[in-house]
């Protein structure tokens, strides 16, 4: 269903749209969880799909998507609430006279068959709407944004001309205000396996990966030498010479004094790391205690709570 | 008669997949009276079931069959039966009916105590604890029972494995109090006073709305262990409940006297206090601990000497610490050297003791490992804290209260996002 | 006299028992001084009521019959010059007829004085009432002032105090205020109520322009005395050291310049560290003038500074007996002495890595056992960083290894932190449970 687009349009996406979609999705999901109230039911394992419209400006071959708003989806008829859409469009037109409805969005992993209905329904507003899909599942390994933009194209399949979704590439365009808010959101919580938030962490990560690579390479060499010793592999003298010269380059100091000083420094660094760790932990604990006290404080007092926990 | 057989057939049939088990569970709930009315027959029916596969059904039958009064001859058999069941049952199934499991285990404990062989109950109950726990950080009502059996049987080491889990989730305050109290006693038995103090401290400072007997007993032991470990009893921390702060001291007057005589540093005073209150200590079963307090005083005095003297004659030690003679002093010093409490060498020729500094230089590989493991621990703790923090942030009760406070602030000032890494 | 032979031996006892005997004992023991205090010379330094009080005090405290009688005689003479009949009766009782008929209660004199007092009092009363009706501020003030003087002369200190206080409302110039303050201070010191002294010294200090150097000096002395009474030796030392030489003999109703030197010197020695001692005392040109008056104190301070502890302690001992007869210093002597001794010991051990206890004992004129006990007390108190080798009787300095101490503390803190956080989580769990129970019950 998805191949690369050939329409030649360049898409520019603003971060506001992405934040809007993700906010919509999160809200619906947590409200649903609250309603279910923790009762394990099979339906909750399927994340809800949310739908909405994207609006923006099209200038020549460039389509710039600035904003978005939510739409009511009727799961019975499997279509968008038309009147609501028109009303919203009118309201937005008043505030942003330049923006037109460029297309619609939804969440999910990929474009689905049923989406084509909605897509066709929108075609009367915009001849060639775009379809923005946000993938809400968190994948730490993925480097790119989980957002894909689809266009519809008429392709001939099995002799029948059909509208299918084709993937388009896009770039992110940021306005100054958006940059600040994105920065703010990014600092909320450094993800566990994600990119480093500070320079120090970046530096240490680099050093760590370098050492890891060195370690694995040395291990390979070691294996190689062992097998050579066992006789599994024929002796290759030139390689042996290279290995020996490598070894001679290593500054291996073996004196007792070095060992002593080295261990002392190692211990000192570890101690400082330890101190830093539990200082950090105590700050987390502090926030936790504040939140806990707010939630479970039996006396409603404004300011100045006694030691409660 | 037939209904029981029908029930058994059902149990055998429906014990394979999770949905079946749920159905079986509801069915079993409905057949409770049936089971209770046919108690005598159940023993035979139990033979037909396999505890490892049909755990849930077996559990119900077992519970019903032991619900009535049990005679002495039967109790031995019952104990073995329950023990076997616990060791072989399947954890998933019994977690569906935790109260039944709990009552079965309690019956085991009662029987074992009646028969005065607490040691028989230890292994089964330990298995039971692990099976009932949803995670190693969860406290079950079985924990205090298990620890009680360990104490009665004096098998402290067995208790240690359960105690080494760090508990974070607690359901019932009573379980918690008993657990900490028994845990403290076990550690005292293992002579690990630091951990004992931790447990007893938890009991004393736990939030409570009304005073309970466990806290009082725990406070008495807390005073004694505190004296042994650090030589003084710290004041109540701020977070102790006001109930505890006001009332605990009234019930433990003889121990407070002990504290004041300990503070003088003189063995004679301590001994007189001990004699005076001997009856009360006996009635609280704390005589052993009080004796340890006495010996700890002389040890502490000797330790103080290590701070001021480099060498000291045994006779001088005996005089300064008020021990009887130099032989006693030598014994004490030897004991302390062996326990690692002081670093010294005794020169028997001229009766001199030389005190040394702590030889630990903090430069060794063992130290590295020690610090590393501490770091790992703190990291795990931080992760737990983060998880709890997130959970509370999404808690509707918290959000409701935060929302209520919002209008008080200016929109500019109010920042609900913690600025952690800016 | 027989006292002199006994003198030196009792001195040695007193020395080795230094700091270990409590102050009460020395008060009960008769104090035998090796140099007889010259009561006459001492008394000539003072005037007015304080002279009498000091003489009575000496008579009560010294164990020496001759000195006692001498003091009482002088007191009687002094009282006769004044108008305090009550005090006269007391002194006569103390004399108990030992000084012969000339020192009996002279009732005639007493009656005359009393009657005169009555008349004067009436007159003053009438005058004051007259002034009050006329509402002339200055006269009312002077009237109250006269009343105060009158009561003071007759020993009714409370009434004197009240009257002096009353003049406050009628003071118009700064000079008046200062005069009032000085009067109140005088009465309060006599009464022993040093709280008022402190207040009124502050009050007087608030008018710096009207103060001439003598008054400044007087106020500083008064402040110093307050601190001394309150056992704040460091502050007392500072005040005494700041007293200007203009004091001279102008404040003999309260204090003599010799006293300023003694109090200031001793307190400084007990409390200041070496730098402060050098700057504020030894290099202090102003204070040097005071120290000239009491050469022993000067020598003693210099000896301490140059580590000649033996002679320093000797001077101290010599002075001790006389100081115990001083009305302001007597109950502070023991404390100050023990503090000075401790400082001496600490200073002695400070520059060395190891000290032989025998040499140290001879430097401090004590025996090794006693010295060891003193050192043990100081080490336990953490004033000296050292350890005693009891076998060889050597004191070794010990410098704590910072790195090890840090490691220990960090590991300890980590363990405690871990324990505390886990306990907190447990308590949180309990609280949450209780909360949900309560919520469930409410529904």
Oligomer: heterotrimer
Overall pLDDT of chain A, averaged? 80
Tell me what portion of residues of chain C adopts beta-strand conformation: under 5%
Helix content of chain C: over 70%
Largest sheet of chain C: 3 strands, antiparallel
According to DSSP, the number of beta strands of chain C is 3
- Count of DSSP strands of chain A: 10
Order of helices and strands of chain C: HHHHHHHHHHHHHHHHHHHEHHEEH
Computed Rg of chain A: 29 Å
Number of DSSP helical runs of chain C = 22
In whole angstroms, the N-to-C terminal distance of chain A is 58 Å
Order of adjacent strands in the largest pleated sheet of chain C: 1-3-2
Biggest sheet: strand arrangement of chain A: 9-8-7-6-2-3-1-10
| Beta-strand residue fraction of chain A | 15-25%
- Measured distance between first and last alpha carbons of chain C: 99 Å
Pairing-aware structural class of the strands and helices of chain A? alpha/beta
Number of helices of chain A: 7
Question: Could you explain how this protein is built, in words?
Answer:
Chain C: It holds the Pfam family PCI. Chain C: Residues 1-27 are annotated as: Disordered. Chain C: Its main location: cytoplasm. The complex is a heterotrimer of chains A (309), B (422) and C (443). Chain A has 309 residues and is α/β, with parallel strands linked by helices. Chain A has helices spanning 15-36, 82-95, 115-122, 176-186, 199-230, 237-249, 256-296, and strands at 10-13, 51-59, 62-70, 73-74, 79-80, 100-107, 130-134, 147-157, 160-168, 170-172. In chain A, strand 6, helix 3 and strand 7 form a beta-alpha-beta unit. The radius of gyration of chain A is 29 Å and the shape is extended. The two termini of chain A are 58 Å apart. The termini of chain B are far apart. Chain B has helices at residues 2-13, 18-30, 32-37, 39-48, 55-65, 72-88, 91-94, 98-114, 118-132, 142-153, 156-163, 173-189, 193-205, 213-230, 242-251, 253-263, 267-276, 278-283, 287-308, 314-321, 326-339, 365-394, 396-405; strands at residues 309-313, 344-347, 352-355. In chain B, strands 1-3-2 form a three-stranded antiparallel β-sheet. In chain B, a hairpin with a 4-residue loop joins strand 2 (344-347) and strand 3 (352-355). Chain B is mainly alpha-helical and 422 residues long. Helices cover 72% and strands 2% of the residues of chain C. With 443 residues, chain C is mainly alpha-helical. A three-stranded antiparallel β-sheet of chain C has the order 1-3-2. Chains in contact: A-B, A-C, B-C. Chain B binds chain C through residues 166-173, 176, 198, 201-202, 205-207, 209, 239, 304, 307-313, 316, 350, 352, 355, 357-358, 360-362, 370-371, 374, 377-378, 381, 384-385, 388, and chain C through 375-376, 379-380, 387-392, 396, 401, 403-404, 407, 411, 414-415, 417-419, 421-423, 425-431, 433-434.
